[in-house]
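Field: sequence (string)
Field: structure_tokens (string)

Example rows 1 and 2, in order.
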Amino acid sequence: MVSPKKTSDSASVLALLDDKSIEFAGYGTARQITDLGCEPIEVQHLDSGLTEKLGEVKATAICGNDITSSCLYVSAQAGIHGGPLAPLVLALVAGLLYLFRGIYHEVVSALPLNGGAYNVLLNTTSKFRASMAACLTLLSYVATAVISAYEAIHYATNFLPHHPPLAVLLLATICLLGLFAFLNIMGLTESAAVAVFIFFFHISTMTVLALVCAGSVISYPHLLWSNLHAPPPDGIAKALFFGFAAAMLGISGFESSANFVEEQKPGVFPKTLRNMWLAVAIFNPLLSFLALGLIPVAEMRAHEHDLLADMGGISWGPFMAQWVSLDAVLVLSGAVLTSYVGVTGLMRRMALDRCLPQILLHENRWRRTNHWIILAFFVLCSSILLITQGDVGRLAGVYTLSFLSVMGLFAVGNILLKAKRGRLPREYVAGGWSLFLAIAAVLAGIVGNVLMNDQAVQVFAAYFAVTLLAVTIMFVRIQIFKVILMLLRAVLERVLVFRQYVVDSVKRINEQPIIYFTKEDTLERLNDAAEYVMRNEQTKHLIFVHVYDDETRIPPMLGQYLNTIDRIHSELRIDFIAVQGTFCPELIERLSRKLRVPKNYMFISTPGDRFTHRLSALGGVRLIL
């Protein structure tokens, strides 16, 4: 291997514009590292979470505030579309959620890393496909924040003597979104203690509401019998299908626990899934059933925004209505804050993986927060609120389509995990029948929401297209820079400063090293690793690293294999580094610091059952083979 030639600084403009170093990375080098040091070192993880791992109560509260807040509006949506069958469809949705408990448990026990669907697809398929799941998750966060903020304002109007006009509601919602944007820029995140208070206050409120409503229905059961015996206007089949599709809104937020699994103590994650399922399975069908005993089905749409508060007012007077309204404001505001915190982590992870512009990683000097991410999220939320004019039906459609797509992709990721990463140890294995039923039910929910609300589909498609376009631009930016170079050569041959910036940008992208840890790989697997990097990473520099404890045990054919790979992929710079030591998180941390390569740019093949380290301890090292 030889060092690549460099272009002379005195080259002409046209020669510079035709610089071929952006096409050919040059030949690599081989070296040995034996001085990584032995002093104590703190391992840094890609997604640093809480210094103290979360237990069952705190972890359940953080994700529970998100999913249980949906009961404030899903009962009305299920009643509008399902009529007297609303409790049944909500029970069916709870059954679907039970299947997803096993699907999520298997994936996260095998890949205990933050990121949800993005993480599982990133480790089982291409980065671009994983980015599509991330875009859907981002859109789900947007819809979560908008619906939660708008519903919180609606419930807050129950404390006012008169209901304000739509323009005031929209302005107040934007102000609430702006308040949480400001708080997040200040560095305020949802603390576990506050989340626990909100969660238990909410569960207590829903319990009291269910009891007083049950007492009222038992005392006056006539309306309940009338609603239950009234046939659905469009027939039982349509009521079941569209009611089920609308009721899927009641499980939104179930994926939130998978987004902060690294901050949870071992064994806590499956307990959060169980607790969220119990809350949804109990409260959603129960409150929907009690609503049938208090409000005629034909009038359900009139109570769309504050159904539970109206139920409290009917059963126990203004005091209960205001109690429920206060609870709604608190838990929905908590969901808005959770959305800001979640989207900041997601977009930061995507920017670190070079799926989004690097400007999003900029931190303000004042509070050291990612203000561009927060402000961009605020603008997205405000724009979708104004476009839909606060139409909860359309917003719910966008919300449901996005998070259903994410859950569907998570199930697909489970299948890919079984097929491609079968050797990874896992605590639980979801059955094939449960995967089939879960994917079929999710597809039915998506189809039902599309048929119910084509306007929501248009809004969803528009925002998903914009988000995906931003990611796509990041994947084809080298081609874009090449087009710019062609234009510069034809039109702006004398603009040397701009030209140099473009060339340097392409070189900087190409020169970002990617590390693949090889143990005893065959020539075919080494070639697969090189081809994966060429397909999925915007780089021309791949470093093969072999960790050894005894020089005599270095595979004798490894050098010959790498020379072959170097000749096959002439457009890729292949380097080899032999590192003396033991493969462990500390060695990865030291190598990352020495070579200045982030750990999310380090790859390994799928480890076997005898692998002694948890994947989460490797700080974001990815699986590619």
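Row 2 begins here:
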Amino acid sequence: METNSEYVIEMLHITKIFPGIIANDDISLQLRRGEIHALLGENGAGKSTLMSVLFGLYQPEAGEIRKDGVKVEINNPNDATALKIGMVHQHFKLVDVFSVLDNIILGAETTKLGFLQKKEARKKVEALSQKYGLKVDLDAKVEDITVGMQQRVEILKMLYRDNEILIFDEPTAVLTPQEIDELMVTMKEFAKEGKSILFISHKLNEIMTVADRVSVLRKGKYIGTVDTKDTNKQELSNMMVGRPVQLEVSKTPAKPGEEVLRVEHLSVPSHVHKRNAVNDVSFSVRKGEIVCIAGIDGNGQTELIYGLSGLDKTSGGSITLCGQEITHHSIERRGENMSHIPEDRHKHGLVLDFSLEQNMVLQRFNDPQFQQHGFIKRDAVRSYAETLIEAYDVRSGQGPITIARSMSGGNQQKAIIAREVDRDKPLIVAVQPTRGLDVGAIEHIHSQLVAQRDMGKAILLVSLELDEVMSLSDRILVMYEGEIVGEFDPKKISVQELGLYMAGAKRMGKEGTQA
């Protein structure tokens, strides 16, 4: 590859190896000045690793990085900052108990004779937030602001350091549709000013909207770079997964049967403040339908599911499952009729230091299928795990004996879904089942959930992904500040309209009319 100053950053022949896996295998990537360049790939394709090499978090085993045609050494993030490279990480790097302003200037403070010049810093931040429409309350504590606001803080951190090369790692994972639109506008604004942007994503809509070029990685290898104007979503998903992928969920209209779950006037206390996190919520889910709870993260969805599954105590109301009131039952008793794909796969989904096969039978090791006279039938457990691993394409280094902790997040998720669906319970509670998964894995999981629905299961889905909400659900309930503010038919509401209810700008009255 020839070197010229058309490229502000060149990563040439980068190889990064972790134990047992080549995360980046001889990858070259060139970023033009003033372009938005997307980096696309499946889970575990090596996107974040490559960007972490550019930001100095990892050192590559081979290859070199050039800035403006000149070879540079980036040994740590301070070196990257000195080269005007900034990064917004997928999991924000903020100090919760500090104010917004303190987080922005942390590590890049203006001092005079050893004293912090906060006034000057505040002026600079205010000017930046004004200029780019990134309004934030500089005196609020980070722990008290929304995730969308936290992301603005991360972006202001980069701008405050006068960064010219901006890396965004999966920046839209936690945003509402309106916030995503705003972010896209901001990114285009940066590019217009001559800043160069690397944008990691596996959301094809966003890439087509905002990127000039796309580079695709697959299983640690570079597949190719294309101009977005000359490609389409289908072609990109083929490059990314290596086979044609169905991007739309194919399903017949639901044929709901009898009621499986009824929730009446349920309240769940908050761990954070005095108010209830879930306040007087009522709804039902019937056989053969997918009911989705939509909302912006942090509006009581987590606590509602904790209340239903028994992870949290409720403070009012009742839960009826399969005709039996279970409001005060133990988690184990509830599990007799309920499968639960939890939001936090590490905390509630897996025992990370157990093997994959042990995790597959966590709730069932007492079944006669898996034990005799108190002894576990190891062969039965192994062959059961092997069947599920194959059916759900769970990729791991050593098959059933792989330790769960060593697997990628996407494959941990597939393992949990395989186990929970296979338990064959009347109600499946699926919380963000495809979070962090790529199009190939999402396609598989969506088709599994639809198949379960068609077999007469009742499915309660909680999702922050609006595409998923719109394409998978038969009914949508919107949650805002612990209450259900609307019930909709996905065929009769637009994403924009749904976003207004999610943000609290609209709500339905008790009679189902707009208030």
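free_text_note (row 2): The chain has three domains: 7-241, 246-337+426-515, 348-424.
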